C-alpha cells in the first residue's frame, strides 16, 4: 500500500503524524479519467485540468480554466459548479470526501488554517488570472506563461493551453512562431 508523499504537501503545514493523512484513499488514474463528485484531491503525480463546456454556438466547446500539478489540491463539488475535472495523463492522487473534510474542520482547529490557506491561494490565483485575461493580449499571456509558469508550456498539450489563453490552437501556433 502506498503512502502520501507528505513532503510534496508540506505547504499545507500539516504535521507528518497528524491523523488526517490516514483519511485519504489512494486513487491511481489514467488519461481522460473524470474525478468523482463531492471529494477533495491531493495530486501527487500526473496532471489534471478543470474545464467548462460552452454551448453558446452550435458546437460545444471546452474552455480550460485551471490545471493541477503534483502538490496541488482541488475539490469537485457539482452542487457549486458545472466544471469537469479530467486527467491529462496518468498519475496518482489522494481523495477524501468533502463531508470528512467538514468533520475535520469541526474537530481540528488547525484544519481551518489549512482551509483558509487553500481558499486564499485560490482567490489570489483567480484574481490574478482575471487581471491577466482582462489586461493582456493572447501573446502577452503566452509570454507570461513562458516566463512565470514554464511548467505549463512544458507539460500541457497545446490545444488545452490555447483554450486556457482563450484562443484557437492555430492562433497559438502563430504566436509561438512569432516568438521563436
3D structure, described in words:
It is a single chain. This protein has helices at residues 98-107, 109-135, 138-148, 150-155, 158-165, 169-179, and strands at 25-29, 39-45, 48-54, 61-68, 73-76, 84-87, 91-97. The protein is α+β, with helices and mostly antiparallel strands. Strand 3 and strand 4 (61-68) form a beta hairpin. Helix 1 (98-107) packs across helix 2 (109-135) and helix 3 (138-148) packs across helix 6. It is elongated and about 55 Å long. The termini are far apart. The model has no long low-confidence stretch (mean pLDDT 90).
Output the strand order for the largest sheet. 1-7-2-5
Estimate the mean pLDDT confidence.
90
Shape, per Cα inertia axes: elongated
Q: Strand share of the residues?
A: 15-25%
The helix fraction, in percent, is 40-55%
What's the tally of helices?
Answer: 6
End-to-end Cα distance: 46 Å
Protein structure class: alpha+beta
Give the biggest beta sheet. Answer: 4 strands, antiparallel
Order of helices and strands: EEEEEEEHHHHHH
The beta-strand count equals 7
Short description:
The protein is of the alpha+beta class. The chain has helices spanning 98-107, 109-135, 138-148, 150-155, 158-165, 169-179; strands at residues 25-29, 39-45, 48-54, 61-68, 73-76, 84-87, 91-97. The mean pLDDT is 90.
